[in-house]
Amino acid sequence: MEYKHFSHQHNLNIYKVQQGQICRCHGCQSLCHDSIYACWACDFFLHEHCGNATRYVNHPAHPLHPLILIPSPTYCSGSFVCNACGEIGNAFSYCCALCEIDLHLNCAFMPPKVSHKAHQHELVVSVGSPDRKGAPEFCKICTKELNSKNWSYCCLKPECDFRVHTFCATSEVKPGLYQGDDPDSEIPEPNSAATEANGNQPKPAPPKPSDPAAELLELQLQMQMAQQLAQMMASFNLSQFV
């Protein structure tokens, strides 16, 4: 059975990875196991969940705009820094070009809640760390410093003060999240408990565009035109008019 993916020029076939074979997914850059989509002429492989990932998601971590799935970074460097885990990526990503939000495909589908043997309570993914007035915070599993700009998993019980890197907490991927109205898929906002205690209601998110793919394409064209204009102005020699 053949399958056509928007990121590759050839049709892909379902293939069962055999023991000892090394195939790396072009979507998430991790090794493939079990069933994959394959183009052997190009050594192009995709996990099933990477090949079936939807073109955009309404992710609760960025409610302002849909995140669009792109097969390669649009930055000049050819790479991006994932807002979730903080690691560099150069393959598939979910992005918002308007806000410069970039997520690894797997990071976009991390489970909202996980259990870990290092802690007795359930851990919830958080898109921001509390303000500690400049004091560094360290992962309770690997003991390395946590970046407050990146996501983490934490225990919601204040007496625990347990927070860890996303990649320390889990490697699980839950394809299909954020396609419906599943309340378990919601990501709590930082300081949400304090907001509720003060009686303040969160601001409603603005309406989603009806065609996010078209919006992204239009934005990319505008950015390209702006870059070309900037290059023309930089190369323009004003000295001839002096």
Automatic annotation (TrEMBL):
A Pfam cross-reference name: C1_2
Keyword field contains Repeat: yes
Keywords: Repeat
UniProt key word Repeat: yes
InterPro entries: C1-like_sf, DC1
Coiled-coil intervals: none
Domain of life per record: Eukaryota
Region of interest (Disordered), ranges: 179-213
Biased composition (Polar residues): 192-201
DC1 domain boundaries: 61-108, 118-169
Protein name: DC1 domain-containing protein
Upper taxonomic lineage: Eukaryota, Viridiplantae, Streptophyta, Embryophyta, Tracheophyta
